[in-house]
């Protein structure tokens, strides 16, 4: 795991690790009323059919969720996520494999030499010892040269973005836990390989952009995450879409790869779910339900009537 020095101890380490912890959400505060939520219902579907915009990191105090989320949970017998969470171990294995260069290659020949020099001077890695009682040790950046820029970017940006929240408390995990506890069906819109490829298939140039962008996150990552979180709580898809404007303006190809291109691929798969007649909830990142090429807009173009709850 990559960490910017000197934050080798403390919050950043804990926040990276807690993302791997399974969620058992506990309701600790009364439900707050909001005008809208990131939950939509397909009105002209044969059976109850919901589109649920998730946020991948929440605090335990965000529970219980506003009632539309609980309605989608209660009324659905099938949950379809971005990829099948039952295959999480396979995803994690393939995702890390995709993060590494083939034997004989490493990051030194893949990024700008000036950036490489900066990384060597400022970024250190935290090495864990499998033997019990051994504290993690700090090593130089060159100890992990096999990793691609986008992987390093993820480990730099995520702790800053989730400074007050945890992916373990994310809405996705809450829905997964409910589905497993109630023995409801679980599936995915993407195969494991497709989900890995979203980041794993980035070019070296795009990966370097992601890394440079992540290096700015310790300054403004928490602030940006707070804006998106507040927009999600209000069900404000316009604000969510506006919050992603910087990436769309600076790297439109990457932005489309993360959201729009996937939306297009998902539509026939969502339609296939609609035609099963099973009460279903589609659960994906809220940004997929925002903007002019959102899942909602694409379904409406096909004649589906959708209301926000």
Task: Note the gap between the termini.
Answer: 40 Å
Largest sheet: 6 strands, mixed
Spans of 5+ residues with little confidence (pLDDT < 50)?
A: 1-32
Number of domains: 1
The chain-level mean pLDDT equals: 84
Task: Write up what this structure looks like.
This protein has helices spanning 11-18, 67-75, 88-98, 113-122, 149-161, 171-181, 192-200, 204-214, 217-234, 237-243, 245-250, 252-258, 260-274, 295-301; strands spanning 2-4, 39-42, 49-54, 78-83, 123-127, 137-140, 185-190, 280-285, 306-308. A hairpin with a 6-residue loop joins strand 2 and strand 3. The two termini are 40 Å apart. Mean pLDDT is 84; it is low at 1-32. The protein is globular and about 60 Å long. The protein has one domain (2-111, 146-308). The longest helix has 18 residues, at 217-234. Helix 5 packs parallel to helix 8 and helix 9 runs antiparallel to helix 10. By secondary structure, the chain is α/β, with parallel strands linked by helices. Strands 7-4-8-3-2-9 form a 6-stranded mixed β-sheet, with helices on both faces. A 3-stranded antiparallel β-sheet has the order 1-5-6. 46% of the residues lie in helices and 14% in strands. The protein is built from 14 helices and 9 strands.
Brief synopsis:
The chain is built from 14 helices and 9 strands. The chain is of the alpha/beta class and 309 residues long.
Topology:
Elements: E1 2-4, H1 11-18, E2 39-42, E3 49-54, H2 67-75, E4 78-83, H3 88-98, H4 113-122, E5 123-127, E6 137-140, H5 149-161, H6 171-181, E7 185-190, H7 192-200, H8 204-214, H9 217-234, H10 237-243, H11 245-250, H12 252-258, H13 260-274, E8 280-285, H14 295-301, E9 306-308
Parallel strand pairs: 3-8, 4-7, 4-8
Antiparallel strand pairs: 1-5, 2-3, 2-9, 5-6
Helix pairs in contact: 1-5, 3-7, 5-8, 5-9, 9-10
């Amino acid at each position: 795991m990559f960490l910017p020095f000197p934050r080798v101890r403390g919050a950043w380490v804990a926040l990276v690790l807690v993302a791997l912890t399974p969620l058992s959400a506990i309701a600790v505060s009364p439900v707050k009323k909001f005008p809208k939520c990131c939950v939509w219902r397909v009105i002209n579907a044969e059976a109850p059919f919901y589109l649920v915009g998730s946020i991948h990191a929440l605090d335990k105090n965000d529970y219980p969720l506003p009632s539309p989320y609980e309605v989608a949970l209660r009324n659905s017998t099938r949950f379809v996520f971005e990829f099948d969470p039952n295959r999480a171990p396979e995803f994690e294995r393939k995702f890390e494999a995709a993060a590494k260069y083939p034997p004989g290659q490493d990051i030194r020949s893949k990024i700008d030499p000036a950036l490489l020099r900066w990384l060597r001077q400022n970024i250190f890695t935290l090495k864990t010892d499998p033997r019990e009682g051994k504290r993690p040790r700090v090593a130089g950046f060159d100890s992990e040269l096999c990793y691609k820029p986008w992987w390093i970017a993820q480990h730099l940006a995520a702790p800053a973005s989730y400074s007050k929240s945890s992916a373990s408390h994310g809405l996705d995990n809450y829905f997964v836990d409910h589905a497993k506890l109630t023995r409801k069906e679980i599936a995915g819109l993407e195969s494991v390989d497709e989900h890995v490829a979203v980041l794993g298939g980035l070019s070296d140039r795009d990966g370097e952009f992601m890394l440079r962008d992540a290096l700015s996150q310790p300054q403004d990552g928490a602030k940006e995450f707070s804006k998106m979180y507040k927009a999600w709580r209000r069900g404000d898809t316009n604000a969510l879409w506006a919050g992603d404007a910087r990436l769309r303006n600076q790297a439109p190809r990457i932005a489309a790869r993360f959201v729009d291109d996937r939306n297009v691929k998902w539509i026939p798969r969502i339609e296939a779910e609609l035609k099963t007649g099973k009460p279903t909830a589609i659960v994906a990142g809220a940004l997929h339900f925002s903007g002019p090429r959102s899942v909602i807009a694409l379904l409406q173009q096909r004649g589906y009537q959708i209301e926000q709850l």
